[in-house]
Amino acid sequence: MPKTGTPRWLEWARQIQSLSQTGLTYASTDYETQRYQRLMEIAAEIVQSHTALTKEAVLENFLAQPGYATVKVDVRGAVIRDGKILLVRERSDRRWCMPGGWADVGELPSAVVIREVREESGFEVLPQRVVGVYDANRGPAPLEFFHAYKIVFLCEIIGGAARPGDETMAVDFFTFNDLPPLSSLRTNEQHLAEVQAHLQDTNRPAAFD
């Protein structure tokens, strides 16, 4: 298995949580339900033992994702103006990233990036092509419970103006060789290097893990 930059205890907790979530979905007897509930508790206890979170808080987070365990999808907009890339500063960690967020059920991926860029930066954009599809859990990243894929779209500005949103505190454009501190879970150097490569080669195929 490729190295993920994620501690083994978190990988184990994720796998146990995923198995128990799926098991609870299809459990047909009280015996099965009890066993899968206990597996969920064990996963929460693993996380509790390595963090400042309580077992109850972790369980609440786990149980907010019912049904068959699947990968979540994070969509990001690579928006370029005058050779600079648009980044937003997150209120949560005060670091910078490409605007974006979790995809909502029922939305097209391209519609998600249009909405997220508008809400987080104030700009109206038109997605042009996919830069890359990444396994968001591989590589250096802060603690996250769930497995996620990241889709990065190259976008063109068609309107709007810089305006922070509810989850962002600043909006600005940066040259690729003078970037602010990045929120690595949301945007890292690999993503930005691939954006640059697509700007230099319009025929470049989308990157993927």
Radius of gyration: 19 Å
Q: Could you give the distance between the termini?
A: 13 Å
Q: Overall pLDDT, averaged?
A: 91
User: How many domains?
Assistant: 2
User: CATH homologous superfamily of the largest domain?
Assistant: Nucleoside Triphosphate Pyrophosphohydrolase
Q: The CATH topology of the largest domain is what?
A: Nucleoside Triphosphate Pyrophosphohydrolase
Question: How many β-strand runs?
Answer: 8
Give, in order, the helices and strands.
HHHEEEEHEEEHE
Residue share in helix: 25-40%
Sheet with most strands: 8 strands, mixed
What structural class do helix, strand and pairing data support? alpha+beta
List segments where confidence is low: pLDDT < 50 over at least 5 consecutive residues: none
Give the percentage of residues in beta strands. Answer: 25-35%
CATH architecture classification name of the largest domain = Alpha-Beta Complex
Give the CATH level 1 class of the largest domain. Answer: Alpha Beta
Globally, the shape reads elongated
Helical run tally: 5
Walk me through what this model shows:
With 209 residues, the protein is α+β, with helices and mostly antiparallel strands. It has 2 domains: 8-63; 72-208, Nucleoside Triphosphate Pyrophosphohydrolase. The protein has helices at 8-26, 30-50, 55-63, 109-121, 189-200, and strands at residues 72-81, 84-90, 96-97, 100-102, 123-135, 148-160, 168-174, 207-208. β1 (72-81) and β2 form a beta hairpin. The protein is elongated, with a radius of gyration of 19 Å. The model has no long low-confidence stretch (mean pLDDT 91).
